[in-house]
Amino acid sequence: MSATWACEASAGRQRPEPPDGVRNEFQRDRDRIIHAKAFRRLMHKTQVFIAPDGDHFRTRLIHTLEMMQISRTIARSLGLNEDLTEAIALGHDLGHTPFGHTGEASISRVLATYGRTFRHNEHSLRVVDKLERGGAGLNLTLEVRDGIRNHTGERYPSTREGEIVRIADRIAYVNHDVDDALRAGIISWDELPKGPLSVLGEKMSVRIDTLVRDMISSSKKQGEISLSGPVYEALMELRAWLFRNVYGNPLSRENEKAAGVVAALFEYYLEHCGERAASDPDPIVETVDFVAGMTDRYALATYRRLFLPRGEIFA
């Protein structure tokens, strides 16, 4: 892969700014994201497991850091722009709801009754464009915004660096979610699909190493960001298995409770507009902004205050 494939300079920002003089534009974006309130909140947002009994389960922040490390390794090996890759990776999940997949699914169901949709990648872009800095937004470069918006979904990033993040996101969460699910006792080793493991490896570190090395070699060989056919198929098979057996696992009572918390909070704040932060003239959009921005612990504390003043929800 030619180094000319790298995005060497930004096409600009929505609002032009003078050069920094020390940092390039993508380094500036990285620093703005790291100092954003939404980034700090990721440490108290669920990756997969809600209120886990243990200190070693991933949060949304840990997922972001692990994925960023994978992305930078690949970008460096391919001679692409590490600063751009890092900025996209750090900002990609800023719009995630509390309670991980469960929270996103719950708010999506509620919004469907109003003819609306919710996608965390689109909301991540809204966070950096509209919600940070008291409504002024972070004014990120067009390339970082594009990578955040298109790290998942039907549209694809316009830069090779964004394409790396899109695949690295799956590499990271598929492997660490297996690790966390085993630790939580939601699944057992014997239940894991043997086909993907025979291709990728049995240990998490081996699987990630296999995927990273394959992505580097395949991208160089194909002239585009890619995994080889067998390795990609193994990753997607393991991912599909996780969606069937872990993310919506009925054995986890917390999932059902968390979904109820999100739905109740949304309906409450939609009716009590004066009690939520102002962010948009549309009351539904404003309620989404408020509820989706909550951390797990803030959502639970608020739910208890509003609905269970003497009770416990995860008891």
Describe this protein's structure.
The protein is mainly alpha-helical. It has one domain (24-307): Hypothetical protein af1432, CATH 1.10.3210. 59% of the residues lie in helices and 0% in strands. It contains 14 helices and no strands. The longest helix has 25 residues, at 160-184. The model has no long low-confidence stretch (mean pLDDT 93).
Q: How does the SSE layout of this entry go?
A:
Layout: H1 25-34, H2 37-41, H3 60-77, H4 82-91, H5 100-112, H6 120-131, H7 142-149, H8 160-184, H9 194-200, H10 204-222, H11 229-247, H12 253-271, H13 283-292, H14 296-307
Helix pairs in contact: 1-4, 3-4, 3-8, 3-10, 4-7, 4-8, 5-12, 7-8, 8-10, 8-11, 9-11, 12-13, 12-14
